Amino acid sequence: MTDDLHEAPGFTHRIRVRYSECDMQGVVFNANYFVYLDDALDQWFHRRLGAEYLGRFEYMVKKAAMEWSAPARLHDVIELRPRVTRWGRTSFDIGVSLSIDGRPVGEAEFVMISVDPGTHRPVPVPDEVRRALDGRAGSDGAAPADQGRSPSR
């Protein structure tokens, strides 16, 4: 799950863990990681494809998996780093590394399907999307400050 074939250099999305996201064990409840991942992917697509990317490119998640290696706790700042790990004709895979202060927390894996907005039937992944997500679109990949979720301590 850590194939760095198409690393998006420099793109990092940060999430500060809030009290309501933790369970009785004092760690992030597992389902909340998928909320974090969804936010990170949206911000990555927004940065790479532009603010109105959903008007030009739509996708559906076929598979989402997460493998944890350490817990995240209240007030931790989780860094999420997405990358494309495989390109197909109508699908592509995304890996996301999660860490806290350089300590690995987990790896997520997604299989995405490029779809026609009207019918939701698979269509080829546009070349513009391939170039942008491979990090060859001229963007530095730096994520803007986390809107509403400041990681500053």
Ranges where pLDDT stays below 50 over 5 or more residues in a row are 1-8, 136-153
- Strand fraction equals 25-35%
Number of continuous helical runs: 2
The rounded distance between the terminal residues' Cα atoms is 31 Å
- The shape is elongated
Helix content: 10-25%
Question: What's the helix and strand layout?
Answer:
Layout: E1 6-7, E2 13-16, H1 30-49, E3 58-68, E4 77-87, E5 91-100, E6 103-115, H2 127-133
Antiparallel strand pairs: 1-4, 2-4, 3-6, 4-5, 5-6
Can you put this structure into words, describing what you see?
With 153 residues, the chain is α+β, with helices and mostly antiparallel strands. The chain contains two helices and six strands, in the order E-E-H-E-E-E-E-H. Strands 1, 2, 3, 4, 5 and 6 form a six-stranded antiparallel β-sheet that branches. The chain is elongated, with a radius of gyration of 16 Å. This is Thioesterase family protein.
Structure summary:
With 153 residues, this protein is an alpha+beta fold. The chain is built from two helices and six strands. The longest helix has 20 residues.
